[in-house]
Amino acid sequence: MTTLNLWERLTLLNLLPEKGNITQIRQARELREMLGLTDEEHESWNIRQEGQQVYWGPTGLKGDAAAAFVVSTEKEFDFGRSQQNMIVETLQGLEEKGELTESLLGLWDKFDCDE
To answer: 8-46 burial, b if ≥16 CB within 10 A, otherwise e?
Structure first.
């Protein structure tokens, strides 16, 4: 089981490939369905989009309150081997192109991309 918070889920949704062979596209669609947010999550986490930015949670949270809110958005996922491989290959592809960012290091580590 892999635990992901809201930010990690949204990030992975944006990283999944939109093009590929039929197997890759079906796999990406399954992952999007798994990682996607429910209506209940949208409502309870106050998710909103303003322009290109997505915001969530009560405004003005700082310190421990902000950290507690992030933890409250965590959800466990049981990824199959091929789903995990797609995520790892996507992150490794960014690394190979020199496009991996510091903000993705947590996902890199969670999915053991160094192996």
So the answer is: bbbbbeebbeeeeeeebeebbebbeebbebeeeeeeebe
